[in-house]
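So, does this match?
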Amino acid sequence: MTLFPPLKSALYVCIDDDAGHRSRLEAVIDGEIIVAAPVDAASLESVPVGSHLMLFWINADGRVVLPVRLTAIDPGPPERWEVHPLGEARRLGRRRHERGGGGERMRVSTFTTQPPITFDSTLLDLSEKALRCWAPAFDITVGEQVHIRALLSNGILSQVGTVTVVREAPNGLGQHIVVVFRSPSASTVQLIRRYLFAWEPVYRRARQAAEGRD
């Protein structure tokens, strides 16, 4: 069960970037959460109902994160946002973005290498800002600019990014590379969040089933 901070406490709404937008907890009614519209809401790009967001707050144990979906906007005044939890709140670890998924086929095309190289790949895991994938043993190097195209369960991810890590695959077959995205759009972030939100409960059930067999 999620333990929320006291009413009127400050919290932050993460929309499509690293920065939290300051808000305030107004009410929790039948599991629905009412927060004040972020103080800079007027300067934000349109945030449609149905968007997947993150709430952050600070307690004695540190920073807490809760994935939510925006279900309604009350224009007020004052304007309030109603959000629905998409899981349990958890303390945020060192990683700034949730990471998971994997297994989908994808294609990678290089820009810097001449002549350009295009190869099929396999997604290993994905976050809002980067992905890790398998690659054949090409001469791909850190700093390479690439275009990736992956068919996710909820849509096509098409993104330009920079290779930041290249290491030999643990089994010695090919390489694992990390690609950090170049300024992903709000729609791309939403696509990735929906993918991860759908993946997480499936992964959790599979892990629990595996632990039950041990």
Observations:
- The mean pLDDT is 82.
- Residues 138 and 174 are 8 Å apart (CA to CA).
